[in-house]
Design brief:
Length: 252
């Protein structure tokens, strides 16, 4: 009798058992009528440290500090001090990203016309290629894309350039925080305080700093800022293809 029953109904019973097992598993995931949700691991905050105006006599000091804290950064370089060009190669070897900041950093020259601007950045890209073996496609405008100083040399040039660089395959990056060292008269404590306050509670940050000739106080302030960012849960990231575009409002 039993043998006949299993012959006739074995598949059906097996199916019911499978459903019961599945339901039991489902029930174990259910508490008071609601599905339990396994929380996703929270993504770490990210900070892109960026340094403009180098390389200079202060760049090696910056590199040494970054290495100590296992922090990577992006350097927007110039050709202002030829004797330090070799540090572009050193930055690259240590895993930092290289971007163009223009060769001359001369506002009157680079912002006199679109042609003058591209001639200048292409000259800088040639220098970069000699140091790291290839040209780069990321850049930062002196003064940022929001600068108004350029209006003195060519009305509307930033509106034109912000379109032209993209058309030529470049990507430009501004910032959403700064340590304030664009003013070389600020004290170390002020740079640290500004660098903390401007980052605030932002989840993704791009911090503007400088490693040019007048950046001695930046070097002194850098360890405190790196320690602070680490304590706030930030991971240091270089600019790459996954980096969000930080674009200011264009004012000229």
């Amino acid at each position: 009798m039993r043998r006949d029953f299993w012959k006739k109904n074995g598949l059906a019973v097996t199916g019911i058992l499978c459903l019961l097992i599945a339901w039991q598993g489902r029930a174990m995931e259910t508490v008071t009528g609601q599905e339990s949700v396994v929380p996703e691991q929270q993504e770490a905050r990210k900070v892109a440290l960026t340094f403009d105006d180098g390389p200079s006599q202060h760049t090696q000091e910056v590199l040494d500090i970054l290495k100590k804290y296992n922090a990577k950064a992006t350097f927007f370089v110039t050709g202002e001090k030829k004797e330090y060009e070799y540090l572009i190669k050193e930055e690259y070897k240590q895993g930092h990203a290289i971007g163009i900041h223009t060769f001359s950093h001369d506002y009157g020259k680079i912002y006199s016309s679109p042609e003058a601007y591209f001639k200048d950045i292409e000259k800088m890209n040639d220098v970069i290629e000699k140091q790291i073996g290839h040209k780069v496609k990321i850049l930062r405008f002196p003064g940022g894309s929001s600068n108004t100083v350029s209006r003195k040399y060519c009305d509307g040039i930033m509106t034109q350039l912000t379109k032209d660089v993209l058309d030529k395959g470049y990507q430009y990056y501004d910032w959403n925080a700064s340590n304030g060292d664009g003013n070389s008269n600020l004290s170390v404590s002020t740079l640290v305080d500004t660098g903390q306050k401007e980052v605030g509670e932002q989840e993704v940050v791009m911090v503007l700093m400088h490693d040019g000739a007048g950046s001695e106080e930046t070097v002194k302030a850098l360890p405190s800022l790196l320690e602070y960012y680490q304590k706030q849960g930030y991971e240091f990231r270089i600019i790459d293809d996954s980096t969000p575009e930080f674009h200011h409002h264009v004012n000229n």
